[in-house]
Amino acid sequence: MKEFMFEGVSTPMLHERIHTIWFCIPMNDHPWLITSMEVKFFSECDTRGVPVIVLFTKADILHIIAIANLRDEGYHMGEAKARAADVAKQLETDLQESVSGELNQYKFAPKAYLSLERVNEKRSNNQLTKLITCTADALDNDFLQKLLISTQQANLAINIRQALQREV
User: In terms of Cα–Cα distance, which of 106, 114, 117, 118 is closest to 133?
Assistant: First the structure.
């Protein structure tokens, strides 16, 4: 992996270069401990300025965990389902703070963090918009930002947001 990444971030050919690294951490791996692979990557892998974005995948599992936790606390199923969204959001926040707090201590810390859920569903456009927006925001190179956004012609909202950010 190191060799592939080193070649990808070093190549002078724009179409062969790695511009962003999405490092996926599935949320269904409870209790979300940082693995030795993650420690090694963020402490040893110099991405030479290529931003790394940690993607918390399978975030929808937090809703199920929230319901289970509420049921364990004695809530009836209807109450647990009604409160699950708030509890799941808090679980997500706690997880991101815990993981980012640890990973940000390493020499090659991630540039950004993003939770994704239900990206394989037909209605996942909002999740993909979040991913593209986060990726564009992580890019330090204006040319690469514009190139990414221009390839997303179907997503006008990102184009408008990026244009407004530049004007501010």
Answer: 114
Over residues 14-34, mean pLDDT = 77
> Strands, E, within 40-150: which ranges?
52-57, 112-115
- CA dist 42 and 105 (Å) reads 9
What dihedral angle (degrees, nearest 10) is formed by the CA atoms of 95, 50, 120, 69? 0
Report whether 129 contacts 155 (CB < 8 A).
yes
Of the candidates 73, 69, 1, the one whose C-alpha atom is nearest the C-alpha of residue 30 is 69
Q: What is the pLDDT of residues 6-15, one digit of tens each?
A: 666 667 777 6
Alpha helices by DSSP H, listed for 33-76, are 36-44, 61-72
- Put simply, whether the predicted model's pTM sits higher than 0.90 gets the answer no
What CA–CA distance (Å, rounded) separates 73 from 77?
Answer: 11
Query: Distances in Å between the alpha carbon of 130 and those of 4, 12, 119, 135?
Result: 27, 29, 11, 8
Q: Token pair 């209605």 is at which residue? A: 123
User: In this structure, which long-range contacts are made by residues 43-46, counting pairs with CB atoms below 8 Å and at least 24 apart in sequence?
Assistant: 43/106, 43/107, 43/108, 44/2, 44/107, 44/108, 45/2, 45/5, 45/108, 46/108
Task: For residue range 82-109, list pLDDT tens digits in order.
Answer: 999 999 999 889 888 988 999 999 999 9
